[in-house]
Amino acid sequence: MLTSNVLVLNNSFVPINITSLRRAFILFYQGLAKAVDAQYATFDFKTWSELSVATHEEGIGLVGRVIRVPRVILLTVYDRMPRRHIRFSRHNIYLRDNNICQFCGHHFSRSDLNLDHVIPRSRGGKTTWENVVTSCLNCNRKKGGRLPHEAGLKLVRPPVRPRWTPFVDFSGRRFHYEEWKPFFKNLVDFTYWNLELEE
Asked: What is the dihedral of CA 82, 88, 92, 96, to 10 degrees?
């Protein structure tokens, strides 16, 4: 039980890590973290330990009592995101380009955008930050397998690798606790958008 997983949030309620229950209890007991329930209410160790375990399946025995197992904790003083490799993923490309077609400059919903290779792969273009942009369906059809200038198109701005890290990579993790679900909008969608793209 003490090696089971707990989701760790920064104090903006953004998932930043997954830790063991043992480590979570240490942070929790020391006042460095609070437990978070399904209604996003936060509890310090004393208040959480006074809550009834009867309505919950998971509890852990302490001296003279049983305490509910927190599956989500919120760090009380950590508001940053850890520095990590910026994943080359659909989600991050759409974030970088702000859901704007990089050829016509119009804003679209994600369902009306796709990814386009500035230098087509058929001409040796690589699948990299510097060669992939968001484009609307019309511009993508117009460009086809040509270079932008050959299709009468111009880039709004040249694509570059971003310097920010929008979130921590949780792809490949198993989300098997109901308490985690509110912090991940749609797990299937999450995997699709955050899977690292390859050449």
From this structure: 100
Helix (H) or strand (E) holding 191, with range, is: helix 187-194
Residue type, 113: L
The pLDDT tens digits of the residues spanning 114-150 come to: 999 999 999 999 999 999 999 999 999 999 999 999 9
- The domain 90-151 is classified under which CATH number: 1.10.3720.10, 1.10.30.50, 2.60.120.10, 3.40.30.10? 1.10.30.50
CA distance 78 to 115: 35
Q: Which structure tokens are listed for 189?
A: 């969608």
- As annotated, the residues of the chain forming the CATH 1.10.30.50 domain(s) are 90-151
The pTM score is: 0.48
Q: Edge-to-edge, what's the strand order for the sheet holding 15-20?
A: 15-20, 5-9, 72-75, 33-36, 42-43
Q: Decide: 103 and 148 in contact? Cβ < 8 Å.
A: yes
Residue carrying the six token digits 């809550």: 51
